[in-house]
Amino acid sequence: MARQSYGAALGDLAARDPDRETLVCGEHRLSVGELDRRSNRLARAYADLGVGHGDRVSFCLPNGIELVIGCFATWKLGAVPNPLSDRLPALERDAILAVASPALVVGINAGERAAGASVPAGFVPDAALSGGPLPDRTAPHERALASGGSTGIPKLILPKSDAAYDRENASPLFKARRAVLVPGPLSHAVPFSATFQGILAGCEVVVMERFDASRFLALVEAHRVDRVSLVPTMMLRIWRLPEGERLARDVSSLEFVMSGGAPLPAWLMRCWIEWLGAEVMHEAFGPSERIGGTFISGTEWLAHPGSVGRPSAGAKIKILDTDRNELPPGEMGEIFMMPTAGPGTTYEYVGATANPRHKGWESVGDMGYLDSDGYLFLGDRRSDMILTGGRNVYPAEIEAALVEHRSVRSCAVIGLPDEEFGQRIHAIVECEGELDEEALRRHLAERLVQYKIPRGFEAVKTSLRNEAGKVRRTALRAARL
Questions:
Q1: pLDDT digits (tens, 9 = 90+) for 25-49
Q2: pTM listed for this prediction
Q3: What is the set of domains in the chain, with CATH numbers?
Q4: Long-range contacts of 175-178, Cβ-Cβ distance < 8 Å, separation of 24 or more
């Protein structure tokens, strides 16, 4: 049977080879048989707490075996998992929970939330509950991921696809042969898909509790990992390791390395291609709404450096100006997409209305341009663009140049009000040691035209990007205003 519910697909794997190791996280290891039995027992406990078909279960848990078992338990009831970052401040977490209206929250203590059932992290179901199979149910949505987008107002993105796995038509982006390494948080789209698509494909999945560059290379070597997806921040930190340490690890098992989640500086992609080979490196772009996306191999990238590729999976892309006229190749505008099955077929929001459409085409606010061969090059979110002295400036271009300086660990560029220029460019920088503004100015002057060089630099001590490599410039700007 090619297409099965996630629960049934896991049950079949467990029946065929129950002792095969399927999940590794830190010191914990889990066989496919254990994962099936433990998620069956946990599903019965969730049902006793009121979870039913179509309900949402919110998880406030870190990456780990507990979270993976919880998601499978949720699917086995026909319910929808809503994984949240365990690092969310209580106010932000509670705002998302108010939108999600979950039947159960896993990972918070009694009394932390007034409405609905909850269980703390480490919850163990009654040992008397059966670990045997449950009636087969398919959740109407495979997941409910939280997003604030550029507005900062929480919403859930629900794919219109149900939680069913098709072995004959599995996503090529997650089709590992032996072992998958997941370095990012499961509360984000690509790490979530990589984990569960890898398990259901019958691979060993190694999930990192927290990303660490040295640990990443050690896990690739130890588990002979062949497939991994990274965000640019992770790639930068791996590249910045001492060369002797980086080259001492055997990473020859890697067959497919994909970057996504944020624009990848061209210089960094070139460094990774020179290290691992063009046939190994890839980059993908696409919103969680799945209205479209692009994909490029390292070999193609060398012919179109800086591009994120051409439309994939039958989706279409065009670039429109503010009057919704289509722009010719080479001109920056707003990226509009059309999914293969037509408008409105890939997602629905909870807590927000769908994005405005233009003749069926839809945008989530990203900017970019197409070259004459149809390859897409990214700008920034429309709301992040800086208009200074009548010129459009895209923060990602400046950030890519900044992180090329070895002292810069992370950075964010925003526009602040300016009486003369409308907006002035302001760089917020996390540095190794003290911020040397003049050194950064000299560094940028070799890479950028003068008007793109920030007029102000601000030093911070904490990373400006989250575990998924994203920066919320809107919040940073608001805090400084």
A1: 999 999 999 999 999 999 999 999 9
A2: 0.88
A3: 30-131 (3.40.50.980), 263-383 (2.30.38.10), 385-480 (3.30.300.30)
A4: 175/201, 175/227, 176/201, 176/203, 176/226, 176/227, 176/256, 177/203, 177/226, 177/227, 177/255, 178/203, 178/204, 178/224, 178/225, 178/226, 178/253
